[in-house]
Structure formats: C-alpha cells, structure tokens
C-alpha cells in the first residue's frame, strides 16, 4: 500500500463513522421540536414524556457527533494539505458559515434547551429547541455546499492554478446542492423514523411480555398499568404514538428520498456520466437498467462484465425521462475523458509514486454498482417495514413474538445502511477526481483535481498507518460508549429520562430538587 491509499481509508472510515451520527441528530432534532410543540399546545403528558425521552437520546447522539466531527476538519490539513491549498479559497466561506453561524446558534440554543427546563418560560424553551434543530439543518446545508462544489465546481475563476471564489451565491445555490440537500434531509428523517419505530415496538412488546397489556376478543389492546415501574396508560400512549409517528415519517421520507434521488440521478448523468455508467455497469451505450450484472472480482474491465438481467428503457428514463435515448457507456466515455484530461498523470512530484502512471477513469465498479443498489434496497426495506408495522399496530399494540420484536429493532439499521451506502457511492464514484470536472458546456474549464495530487506530500506511510490505527482504536471505544448509553436509555424507557414518573419516588425526588435529578447531563459522565 502507499500513503494515498491509507489516507483515503482513514478519511473514509472516519467520515462514514461520523455520518452515522449526523442523520440521527438531524432527524431526532426536528422530531423532538415537533413533540415539544405538541406538548406546548395540548398540555398532554404523553408529549412531555416523548419530548424528554427522545430528547435524551438526541443529546447522547449529538455529543458523539460533535466529538467525531471535529476530526474531519483537522484531517484536511494533516493528510490532505495539497487539497486544502487548492480548494481553500472556496471551502473557507461555507465552512466558516457552518462554524460561526449554524454551529454557534445550534450550540447556544441547545444549551438553553438542556438547562432551561423549569427555568425558562415554556414558549422561550420551545423556541430554543426549534432554533437548535433548524441550525442543525442549516449546518448540513453549508457542509453540503462545500461537498457539492467538489462534485460540480461553480462560482470561481482559475488564478495561478487555483480556483478563487468570485460568486459565493453561485456556490450556495449550486444546482447539485439544491438537490443533494433535500435528499440528505429526507434520508436523515428516514433514520429518525426507523429509530422511533424500532424502539417503540420493543417497549410495546415488553408491555405485552410483562402482562401489562393484553388483547381482547376483538383483537384490540386492553391497556393495563403498573405505576411502580412507570408502565401506566400514558406510557402506552407514548410508545404507540412513537411507533405510528416513526412509521409515517419513514414512509414519507422514503417518498421524498425517491423523488429527490431521481432528480439527483438525472443531474449526475450530466455532470458525472462515468459515475452513473459505473453504477449501472453500463459498458456499452444503451437504454437498459441492470437488475443484475456479474464480473470478475476486482476487475474494472468491461470484457469481464456480463449483464444477467436488464430492464430495457429504464436507464434512459432515469437519465432523461424517456425510454429511447441511448445513454453513453463506459467504453464510450473513457476516450472522451482521455481526450479532455489526458491518458497519464503529469510527471510531477506532487503526484508522488503515481506520477506519470496511466489514469483509470472508471471507479471501482463493485463499490458503485452495489453501493447504488444497497442504498435503494435498504431504503425500500425500511419503508416497507414501516408500512407493515403501521398495519400490525392498528389495534393498539404489537404481537408477543420475540422474533418480530428483534426484526423491528434490527430494522433500525436499514436506513443507516441506506445513508452510508449512498455516501460511499457518491464519493467513491467521483474517483479518480477529488474535485470532479464539468463535462457539460456550461462547466468551468480546468477546475478539477486528481485525488493522487491531493494528499500531503510530507506525510509518510508509517505516520498515516499509525494515525489510522489510533483513530480506529479511539472511534472503537467511542462506539462502545455510545451504543452502551443508547442501549441503557432505550431499555430504561421513559423513566430513564424522567425518573419522576416512577410511583415509588417521593415528591422531592421527582420535583428536580435533588442534585442528580437536576443534572440533565448526568449521562455524559
């Protein structure tokens, strides 16, 4: 292996790990804001309990997301200094807006929300969580503005071999960004929906298992109560409402992901045709969408690729909205890329060991092909499971089946898998470029960068291997911590976030007067 490969592995691992927290934070933030609004408007106890329980899980995930996200920006300077020099004039503005505007608002108002219970007026406290949630989504916008520029450079001029930003509004209204942003948000909401559904199913099942809830002759739930452990009638409403809300959010989000994903695919066929050709294993021009293609493992050679099942016309529809236009395949695109960007990397020291080597313009097809399909498959599974769950729980509870409960809980991972697969496809499909060129006539000439030129020249292979191992160890520990905390609070149910709901606690203990009860960040210690 060489330094470039290890640097890519390091950035890929830390980024995918960090993005496990991001969609849940975005989705849960808005969910908690809506739930608290419902409590503010109706005064119903169930919404207060839901706000505090899901809010606790939101905080655990948010804190871990901040800790892992800080590493990302440091890596630009440590392992990717040449990249930072090239894009710095463009990246500086959106990243500064993300840090100084969105993240500051997010942090300040989240702090007010955390410590403002029983201290701030209810309306002001509600405003705090809305401000924090909207700022979280604003933060995602600025980050995606930077990423979308890598996919489709706009708003710059090349001066002395570097892109210099001349129009920040062009960067912030990049058409790639305008479709990527809602696609990412819908993906985040699908994660939150699956999260609510899976955990709510577990607690409804637990109430059945413990004999608290039973089912009448008509199949409808007979809600029981055990206040000593916090399992009263309101507790049942908490979990049934959470399940239904989660299922509806998951299904609506999948519809949103599908619509925005279609727009994004059409744009990518124009802006990064090789990425989409590799995603379809489309070696030759045509209209057919590959249901299944097979080839030799590790080979990007079209001679080793066989299309087993195809749907005629569907690829053309995804790209152009019709069923007859031929879509350029890999064999057609390779000569076009070679004519535009050369057959070999320049013989320049900045390219390290790869200087003067032949350029492979085809991204790893196993990753792009299966990443694209895993994204779609996991998304469809999550939406289908939500529809089934909504139907099963229509009479107010869930079956006593332990296997169905486990399936519902493990189903939480499906939208996470869809999000991760989508991002891996998006980023690896751009290779061999770290900043993709514009092949369309409206593109800005010469604004592109090969990944081989982006890595820091002064960082050795040994240093990168050490930092990769160190990150893997630290992130592994953090993963254990987060999973343990989430498991503990999820299993504990509402009493884990609101100890005062337990019937055996005295008034002082439940009023927030005790030191432990008043410390809303006790979980962090």
Largest sheet: 2 strands, antiparallel
Q: Work out the strand percent.
A: 5-15%
Task: Provide the succession of SSEs.
Answer: HHHHEEHHEEHHEEHHHHHEEHHHH
The helix tally amounts to 17
Q: What would the principal axes of the Cα set say about the shape?
A: globular
Task: Note the gap between the termini.
Answer: 40 Å
Would you mind describing this structure in some detail?
The chain has 525 residues and is mainly α. It contains 17 helices and 8 strands. The strands form 4 sheets. The chain has a two-stranded antiparallel ribbon. A two-stranded antiparallel sheet has the order 3-4. Strand 1 (156-159) and strand 2 (162-165) form a beta hairpin. The relative contact order is 0.14. The model is unreliable at 506-517 (pLDDT under 50).
Keywords:
mainly alpha; two-stranded antiparallel ribbon; two-stranded antiparallel sheet; globular; Cyt-d_ubiquinol_oxidase_su_1; membrane
SSE blueprint and pairings:
Layout (H helix, E strand, L loop, with lengths): L2 H40 L2 H34 L2 H35 L6 H30 L4 E4 L2 E4 L2 H5 L2 H35 L4 E2 L5 E2 L10 H39 L1 H7 L9 E6 L11 E6 L2 H7 L9 H12 L23 H28 L9 H9 L2 H16 L4 E3 L13 E2 L10 H32 L1 H4 L9 H4 L4 H4 L7
Antiparallel strand pairs: 1-2, 3-4, 5-6, 7-8
Helix pairs in contact: 1-2, 1-4, 1-6, 1-13, 1-14, 2-7, 2-14, 3-4, 4-6, 6-7, 6-12, 6-13, 7-8, 7-11, 8-11, 11-13
Could you provide a short overview of the structure?
By secondary structure, this protein is mostly helical. 65% of the residues lie in helices and 6% in strands.
């Amino acid at each position: 292996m060489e330094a470039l490969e290890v640097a890519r592995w390091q950035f890929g691992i830390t980024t995918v790990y960090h993005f496990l927290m991001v969609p849940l934070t975005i989705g849960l933030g808005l969910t908690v804001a809506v739930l608290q609004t419902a409590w503010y408007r109706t005064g119903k106890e169930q919404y207060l309990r839901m706000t505090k329980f899901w809010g606790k899980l939101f905080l655990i995930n948010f804190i871990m997301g901040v800790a892992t996200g800080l590493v990302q920006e440091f890596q630009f300077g440590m392992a990717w200094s040449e990249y930072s020099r090239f894009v710095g004039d463009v990246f500086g503005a959106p990243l500064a807006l993300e840090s100084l505007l969105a993240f500051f608002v997010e942090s300040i108002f989240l702090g007010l929300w955390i410590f403002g219970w029983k201290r701030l007026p209810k309306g002001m406290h509600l405003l705090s969580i809305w401000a924090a949630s909207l700022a979280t989504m604003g933060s995602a916008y600025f980050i995606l503005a930077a990423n979308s520029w890598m996919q489709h450079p706009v708003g710059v001029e090349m001066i002395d071999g570097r892109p210099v930003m001349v129009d920040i509004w062009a960067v912030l209204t990049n058409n790639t960004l305008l479709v990527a942003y809602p696609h990412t948000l819908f993906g985040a909401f699908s994660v939150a929906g699956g999260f609510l559904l899976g955990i709510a199913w577990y607690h409804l099942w637990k109430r059945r298992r413990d004999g608290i809830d039973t089912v009448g002759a008509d199949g409808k739930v007979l809600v029981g109560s055990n206040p000593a452990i916090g399992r009263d009638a309101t507790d049942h409403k908490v979990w049934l409402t959470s399940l239904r809300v989660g299922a509806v959010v998951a299904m609506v989000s999948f519809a949103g992901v599908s619509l925005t994903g279609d727009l994004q695919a059409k744009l990518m066929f124009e802006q990064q045709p090789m990425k989409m050709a590799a995603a379809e294993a489309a070696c030759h021009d045509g209209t057919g969408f590959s249901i299944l293609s097979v080839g030799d493992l590790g080979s990007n050679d079209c001679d080793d690729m066989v299309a087993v099942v195809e749907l005629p016309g569907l690829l053309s529809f995804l790209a152009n909205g019709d069923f007859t236009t031929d879509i350029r395949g890999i064999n057609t695109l390779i000569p076009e890329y070679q004519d535009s960007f050369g057959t070999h990397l320049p013989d320049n020291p900045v390219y390290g060991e790869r200087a003067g080597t032949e350029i492979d313009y085809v991204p790893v097809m196993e990753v792009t092909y299966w990443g694209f399909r895993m994204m779609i498959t996991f998304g469809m599974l999550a939406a289908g499971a939500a529809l089934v769950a909504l139907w099963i729980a229509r009479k107010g509870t869930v079956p006593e089946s332990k296997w169905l409960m486990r399936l519902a809980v493990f189903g939480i991972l499906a939208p996470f898998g869809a999000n991760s697969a989508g991002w891996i496809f998006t980023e690896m499909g751009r290779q061999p470029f770290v900043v993709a060129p514009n092949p369309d006539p409206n593109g800005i000439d010469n604004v592109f960068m090969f990944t081989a030129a982006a890595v820091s020249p002064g960082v050795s292979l040994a240093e990168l291997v050490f930092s990769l191992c160190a990150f893997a160890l630290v992130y592994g520990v953090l993963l254990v911590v987060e999973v343990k905390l989430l498991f503990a609070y999820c299993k504990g149910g509402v009493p884990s976030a609101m100890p005062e709901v337990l019937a055996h606690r005295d008034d002082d203990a439940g009023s927030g007067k005790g030191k432990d009860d008043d410390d809303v960040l006790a979980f962090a210690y």
